[in-house]
Amino acid sequence: MQIKVINKSHHPLPQYQTPLSAGLDLRAVLEEPVALQPLERKLIPTGLYIELPDGYEAQVRPRSGLAFKHGLTVLNSPGTIDADYRGEVKVLLVNLSNDVFNIEDGERVAQLIVAKHETVEWEPVEELSSTERGAGGYGSTGKK
Fold this sequence. Notes:
With 144 residues, the protein is mainly beta. It has one helix at 64-70; strands at 4-7, 24-27, 34-36, 41-51, 56-61, 72-74, 79-81, 88-95, 101-103, 108-116.
């Protein structure tokens, strides 16, 4: 699939790191490094503007290595970019570690996944079909 993109950064377009990767790595576009304090959140620009086709969304997700090694994650994960949005793609990062994390220009801070979605039309009813689980919610299926 082809997606229209404007790249106002000085970095290459997002790329897949392996042939079977689902996510394209997003890079920070910064004039100077940004220090992310413990429990602090900041909006990190990417310099990218995209035009998604109707029926698609882009999801901004954490990078597993940053999450595991440094406690850095995307706060509204996954962040959704709708097909009618034309502003800059930004990443809302939060530092869940006890240490300051310095974000450098060009650093891969998140990944972008493009996914097809459906548009819901609600069908009001008086009753739903029954299932074995029923209304069992959080923790209702046990530990194993």
